[in-house]
Specification:
There is one protein chain. The chain is built from ten helices and ten strands. The chain is of the alpha/beta class. Strands 1, 4, 5, 6, 7, 8, 9 and 10 form an eight-stranded mixed β-sheet that branches. Strands 2-3 form a two-stranded antiparallel ribbon. Helix 1 packs parallel to helix 2. The termini are far apart.
């Protein structure tokens, strides 16, 4: 066994001679998944790729911890983030732990399933394994104020679910088929990553949510707790938690990136509705 210098001598010893403390990279993944508005980017590969690369690339870390707080959002971005985490975990040969704070629902839970273990606060909300599509219908409003909607397409489905025209039953059939395909992928991913869910015998793929305490016996999570306490118990009281800073650029740089020529009033209206939808995503879980 190599000789270990007493701890009180560490401050005056060369760094190479000091006992190395275990360390864990901590990456926070917070927010609605997908593009939210020009000024508030949600979680996406564009916003989290750098943080993931930095966390998994840290020298000497024993594991990577994901602190997740997300009500879900874009299925595609959720899946891309999930796959990137798994790819980096295999490449770097590092275990991954997910810690759920307020909520890991829908796409947020899909991302959590990229971890080897999921630990949740007992009062957090877990699950919502399903697919939802929501929007607004303005056809009666524009009729009332005397506005005529003109749409010209090549392809009968090109204007599918146009919010300014009456809902078309054929569009709903197409949408349901798309949702079923995404749901099949989501279900397969969860059952592959969470064998305990498959073995539980319960139908957990209804879009319902559970508290962290309820989710534990269902196999949706592996334990209850928080990141600091769990990692100290796992790696020792002297474990160093290295928080990976988000790298999205300054407010001004993000504003200039999105302030492209040709922006119209409808763009700002779209931002307003995006903000409403973002708020609604959190509100579904009482947050």
């Amino acid at each position: 066994m190599p000789f270990a210098f007493p701890r009180f001598l560490h401050p005056i010893l060369p760094k190479a001679w000091r006992a190395r403390k275990p360390s864990v990279a901590v990456i926070r993944l917070t927010g609605v998944i997908g593009a939210v508005s020009p000024l508030r980017s949600g979680l996406s590969m564009a916003t989290v790729a750098s943080s993931l690369e930095s966390g998994f690339g840290m020298a000497g870390v024993s594991a990577v911890a994901l602190v997740i707080n997300s009500p879900g959002g874009s299925p595609a971005q959720s899946h891309l983030i999930h796959r990137r985490i798994r790819s980096l975990a295999i490449e770097k040969k590092l275990p991954v732990y997910a810690f759920v704070e307020d909520v890991a629902a829908s796409g947020g839970y899909m991302i959590a399933c990229a971890a080897d273990e999921i630990v949740a606060d007992p009062t957090s909300l877990i699950g919502s394994i399903g697919v939802v599509s929501a929007g607004f219908g303005f056809d009666k409003l524009i009729e009332r104020i005397g506005v005529e909607r003109r749409v010209h397409t090549q392809g009968e489905a090109k204007a599918m679910l146009d919010p300014f025209r009456p809902e078309n039953p054929e569009d709903i059939v197409r949408l349901k088929a798309i949702q079923a395909d995404v749901q099949e992928l989501f279900t397969a991913l969860v059952t592959e990553r969470r064998p305990a869910v498959r073995a539980s015998g319960d139908n957990l793929f209804t879009g319902a949510v559970w508290t962290g305490r309820q989710a534990l016996p269902l196999g949706l999570v592996d334990g209850l707790g928080d990141a600091r306490s769990t990692l100290r118990a796992r790696f020792g009281d002297d474990v160093v938690l290295k928080l990976v800073a988000e790298k999205q650029g300054s407010f001004v740089s993000r504003l200039l990136r999105r302030a492209v020529p040709g922006s119209t009033l409808s763009d700002f209206a779209g931002d307003a509705f995006a903000a409403i939808e973002e708020r609604a995503a959190w509100a579904r879980y009482g947050l």
